[in-house]
Every structure is written in C-alpha cells, then in structure tokens.
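A reminder from the course coordinator: this example appears on the midterm review sheet, so study it carefully.

Given structure:
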C-alpha cells in the first residue's frame, strides 16, 4: 500500500513539475517572440529614415549639374531624416534604460505643481505655433516622492501629444489633484481623438493610429510607451479616454509615497 501511495504521489508531483515547466516554457517563448518582434520593429523604424536619405543622396549624385536650389532642398530633407533617426535612437535608449529589471530611480521629494508648470512652459512654443491654448489647473499643492526626470518625461510626452494631435486653435487642459494616497494628473485636449479599436494599443512601442499622419507630425511611436513605463516604475497607472473628432483625455495616478519593488514584495 505504502508503495502504491508513493507511486501516486510521485506521479502527481511529476505531473505538477511538468505542467509548471510547460507553463514556464510558454512564457519564455512569449518573451522571446516579443523580443524578436521588438528587434524587428526597431530595425524597420531605423531603416525608414536611412532609406529616404539614400534615395535623396542617390538622386543628387545621379545628376551632373544640380541646381543650387534643388541641392539645398534635398540637403534639408536629408538633415530632417537625420534628426528623425536621432529622435528614434534617443527614445529607444530612454526606453531600454527604463526597461531594466532594477532601473535606477532617483527618488526625491518633488513639487508636482512646479513640475507641471515648467513642463507646460517648455512646450509653449510648440503650442503657440499651432495656436493651441494650454491651461493648467492646480487644485492643491502637491509634493510627492518621485523620480523627477522620469515623471517629467511622462507628463511632457502626454502634453506634447495633446498639442501635436490637436486642431489649429484648439485647447489643452492639464490639471493636478491629490488625496491622501495618490496624486492625479489629467491631460485633456480638443484634438482629433483616438478610435476605440486603437485605444488598447497606443501604449505599445511604435504603435501609431495613422502612420503617415503621425510621421508627418514627427513622432517616433515611442512617446506613450515611455510615459507608461515611467508611470509603472512609480507603481502608478495611466488610462486613456477618447472620442474621435472630439478629443482625448489621459489620466495618470501615482502614489504620493514611493514604495520600491523589494519593499512591496515583503
Ligand atoms: P508618436 O511619437 O507617434 O506621437 P506616441 O507613442 O506618443 O507616438 O503615441 C502613439 C500614437 O497614439 C500616436 O501616433 C497617435 O496616433 C496616438 N495619440 C497619442 N496621443 C494622442 C492624442 N492626445 N490625441 C490623438 N492621438 C494621440
């Protein structure tokens, strides 16, 4: 009898181990597939400006006598593509740095009202170019334990998008509120909006609703992935609400006191 019980138990344990192993293998495969997809996306995105530069340079080289104006125009286009390549690389580096298992967060007490004011001030010139009115409403003074650089990056990306995907003469409304546990940042705009079917995907790396339109506007498709990562590192959350043609609102909720992953696991 004892032997039989031992046999049954061993059988059960072997099956449990095998199930756990299969589960792990499945997850590893998923990680591998998503890494592969990421590398392939990165290559594709980096190749696009390069391909444009090649076409521009080749067409200049093919002509024997290039008029100065044409030369100037093509060189300006090449310079634009170089800037774009640079933007993609910089955003990628930011993402990779934040994606580490133990990213170095520099947590300090930060005045969030001031952080928002400074971010909006910095983006004012882009807003003015589009005649977009940017308003900040601070419902109360907020000081929280955050990584100032990373949180600024998140807010900056949200406000920049709210301006970029807005209509001429539109508005952006940023607000700050808090309770005893969290602070809340809201960035609302009167822009083009995001179709329902895209809303689940916009935080993915390189995802853009309208590739050609976004490219024209000058995005890398990494801004929201960076914003989301920065917020998640603070154990916060980020959500989007949008009606196409009416506008978009992003809400960010972040704990006032930072709890590290190790401390949270205890
Ligand atoms: P991008 O560099 O293209 O702006 P993001 O990651 O910042 O990339 O945003 C991903 C996509 O989400 C954008 O290409 C755009 O289609 C959409 N999007 C982001 N913010 C807004 C907004 N405020 N209004 C409308 N569409 C937006």
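Designed residues:
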């Amino acid at each position: 009898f004892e032997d039989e019980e031992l046999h049954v138990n061993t059988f059960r344990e072997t099956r449990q181990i095998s199930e756990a192993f299969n589960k792990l293998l499945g997850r590893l495969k998923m990680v591998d597939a998503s890494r592969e997809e990421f590398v392939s996306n990165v290559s594709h995105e980096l190749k696009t400006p390069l391909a444009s530069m090649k076409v521009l340079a080749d067409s200049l080289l093919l002509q024997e006598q290039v008029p100065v104006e044409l030369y100037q125009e093509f060189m300006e286009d090449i310079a634009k593509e170089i800037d774009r390549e640079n933007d993609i690389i910089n955003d990628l580096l930011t993402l990779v740095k934040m994606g580490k298992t133990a990213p170095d967060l520099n947590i300090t007490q930060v005045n969030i009202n001031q952080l928002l004011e400074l971010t909006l001030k910095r983006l004012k010139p882009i807003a003015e170019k589009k005649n977009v009115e940017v308003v900040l409403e601070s419902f109360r003074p907020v000081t929280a334990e955050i990584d100032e650089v990373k949180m600024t990056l998140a807010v900056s990306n949200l406000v920049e998008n709210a301006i970029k995907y807005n209509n001429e003469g539109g508005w952006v409304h940023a607000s700050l509120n808090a309770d005893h546990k969290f602070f809340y940042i809201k960035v609302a705009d009167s822009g083009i909006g995001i179709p329902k079917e895209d809303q689940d995907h916009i935080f993915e790396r390189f995802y853009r609703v309208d590739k050609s339109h976004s490219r024209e506007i000058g995005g890398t498709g990494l801004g929201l992935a960076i914003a989301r990562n920065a917020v998640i590192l603070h154990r916060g959350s980020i959500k989007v609400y949008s009606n196409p043609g009416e506008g978009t609102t992003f809400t960010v909720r972040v704990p006032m006191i930072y709890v590290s992953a190790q401390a949270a696991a205890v």
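The beta strands are 107-111, 133-138, 143-147, 171-178, 182-189, 237-243, 247-255. Residues 157, 161-162, 165, 189, 191-194, 202, 207-210, 214, 219-225, 248 surround adenosine-5'-diphosphate (CB under 6 Å).
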